[in-house]
Amino acid sequence: MPSSSFLALLGFIGAASAQNYWFSFGDSYTQTGFVTNDTLPTSGNPLGNPVYPGYTATGGANWLDFDTTTYNNSLVLTYNYAYGGATIDSSLVAPFEPTVLSVTDQVNQFLDTAASKPAETPWTSENSLFSIWIGVNDLGNSYYLSDNRTSFDTTLLNAEFALVQKLVSSPLLRPLKRNNVGARNFLFLNVPPTDRSPLMLSQDAQAQAMLKANILDFNAQLIEFTNDFKASNAGVTTFLWDANAAFTTILDDPTAYGFIDAVSYGTDTGYFWM
């Protein structure tokens, strides 16, 4: 169930106009399998391709599906560039397969297609939201590789926010709007407590503690980067949803939310981990 603050955010994107646009980037927590050269979102099919709910990590509707079709105050057309297994930049943290599209690749896809506001996607700065939920694979694939995690987390977030800046204005956009892509409304989601996942619970206590500390550091820096980004870009609005806190609340009392427990996993709706 979305939190009241998240519903307020969705009310925000519904306030601009009768038709709003959502451009999302991320990993398997967000993916639906959207590709840019197939059916685009329309009023009768707000996520475009593939057929709803798409190819999600859980096999059913995910948060982006629900928020596009149910938990909003207007028609939201969602262009979901998220790709399962993604990291921020493959040159910094390699994904599980070289074919995985990083957030760097996803943003470039957007810049090559919808960024120029073509006739079939006439979004504006006022009626669009840009979201990024990333970091799970960046940390999960690297938390044990470096002693100086704070420095590496800074490197990761520098790379992420360089991409975010391109969504505001990018020299890559051709040909007429080269200096102003136009993104102004941004939603960032932090890294959930994957140190409590069944995969990590099968590791030793030291590994779990290392990942937890890495997540806490990354999330703390994400707040700082978000604030600095907003301060450096006039007219930008930012939202940061605390996915870590939401997951923690449920994992601390799973049966109260209809789950079997906090440690099992499976394909049934009774499992928190899928």
TrEMBL record:
Residues 1-18 form the signal peptide. It holds the Pfam family Lipase_GDSL. Keywords: Hydrolase, Signal. InterPro entries: GDSL (IPR001087), GDSL_Est/Lipase (IPR051058), SGNH_hydro_sf (IPR036514). Gene3D superfamilies: SGNH hydrolase. This is Carbohydrate esterase family 16 protein.
